[in-house]
Amino acid sequence: MSLLSQYRKEEIADWYDQHSKSILSFILLMVKDYQQAEDLTHDTFVKAYLYYDSFKNHSSEKTWLFSIAHNLTVDFLRKRKPKLFLKEFFLSQKDTNLLPEDMIKLKEDSYELYQALGEIKDTYRKVIVLRKIKGFSIEDTAKILNWSESKVKSTLYRAIPVLKKQLIKEGFFNEEALRRY
Amino acid sequence: MRKRYEDTELDHPLKELNSDFMWKTSKKQELKTRILIDIEKLESGEKNKDATNTKKGYTFNNRSIHSKRLSIAVVVCLVIGSTLFFTPALAVIQEVYDKIFTSEHIDDTGVRTAVNQGYGQALDETFYDKKHDITVHFEMVVMDDKETKLLLTYQSEQTNVQNYYLDLFEGDTSIYLVVEDERKKLKNVGWGSRYYDQKKNKVAEAISFESIKEYEGQNITLEIENLTVYDDNGSSTVPTIWPLDFTLDQSAISKRETVELNKDFSFRGETYKIKKVEFSALETRVIVTGSDTKIQTDESGMEYRIMSKLEQQLLNARKIDEKYGYTVDDKKSGVFLKSAGEKVAPIFSKGEVEGEKDEYIMIFGPVKDRQDSILEVGDVLKIPLTKDGKIEKLAEDSEKAYIDEVLAENGITAEPLTDNEKKEMDVYLEKFPKDFPINRTVIGKVKNHENTKVIEVTIQRSGVLSQSQALNPEEAEKARKENGLSFIPIFLNHD
Known about the structure:
The complex is a heterodimer. Chain A is mainly alpha-helical. Chain A has helices spanning 3-31, 34-50, 61-90, 93-96, 108-119, 122-133, 138-145, 149-169, 175-180, and one strand spanning 104-106. Chain B has eight helices and 29 strands.
């Protein structure tokens, strides 16, 4: 391996140490399948290595990695849709939300929220995950999703009440409990 | 100051969710190893269809691995980013000398200009909120047919008003119109502006809500209900009502003048039509449709817009400042109006105003002379906003000109490849990984590349140029030879 390649590899390894957990949990929230999330995280970093020269340094490497992760996830979900339709016909959606505890755990307090997020539509879920869970700015969220900033704002504005409604519907919270946060 | 419009009671549990994920360290390390081995194999050419170490089992063929080995070499890679755009000196936004709206913190230039130009009805009404010890002074009201701006200050000797907001958009604040026995909630329009003066413990604010121009000549009451408090603990409400009684005078109301234009122009390979321009005391709207302003539909059937090239150009000059809100970056090109010789900046805080289907609306400050208003798109186009005015093309706007401009800004001159060099490039590209192909084409080579550290040059369509460089020219030449290239290729990246 040449020194240049070595340099890239070390940088990717460094980025992995810093951002892999965040990227994995983002993908996991989107695909609701740990093994797929792990594979897509793998692809994200391999792709980052291959596309290294395309990295635009006017966004942070984290934003760039999330754009790659998002594109891979969208491709994956698009391809998976027909299969999922049949699977969902036989299984309830909740079953696909289960986490393999020997690999990844979620504290009990957050599990209900994770479940509720899994029930709302992809567009709402991803904007909530990026803005509220990952803490990206509107500008960076727009870059990652390739949306206009106004779409980020308006979608988030619609998504939050839908998530609240889902939490109430599932019986996880009531209005009063929500207000306590 | 930008308001925290998106704060909700779910913020805390959502943030917790992020930190509540516990990924087994051994799994994390295992995946890291898998990634690094795959990268290593990509480089070394060991990996083939059967030699997948990954559980996932996707493969890279021999040809692509070999190419990767050839394609990169040497010591260190520097990615140097640079934007295409010129940096014209922009006129400084005119200062407004109104007694309260002199601050740069008021980011709606439309209000400032309107006040400066003498629009609006002076109110000069004071209300004392005894319970909270807040003195409210209503300064002025100004409106057109789309929005009303109410300008006021509030201050206190005892209550710290630093975190008090009149947030009509996402906060708990509302504004009502009371006429005779009827009390009607008014809709929020766009963003307001706010400035807190710490020395005086005083807030100057312009709140923005729907137009009430149809009440001209009537005695009306506006009631501001509740203050929204944003602090480190989230948001809370201060219940109160601040009333304002006055007769709505004609001087508060500015008429909107609409000019149908239907003027076509092209920019960066996209075609646009300026449908119409709307002039008012508070703003100038330029309504555009274009080949990249059309509504898109995503995989879930939801409609959305992408950022058009024109919008990208407009936002290029936007600077976001935590303290001052949206301002203009003087070092960058954008889209501006020029009226009576003066530059008029976009009102960036109105960026989310959406038009009809397929429309993109650019909103600028009000202009001085509606007959002498020109839309300036970067340094390439001047479009008079009149029916007869002819579009002036200042510079070539073709893709080639655009690329040449990017290269020139980086001190690079391109020249075409010879037949032999094309063959070298074909061999090189043939060997590049096919599983993750980079969508790029070679558009030439760097002229006079002796004694340079550059290995290859890539230009993004967005105008960003990146270079792979070695530590010294000798290493760069060695790397190029390893890649089978006798020249420095210039790639155009299509992603």
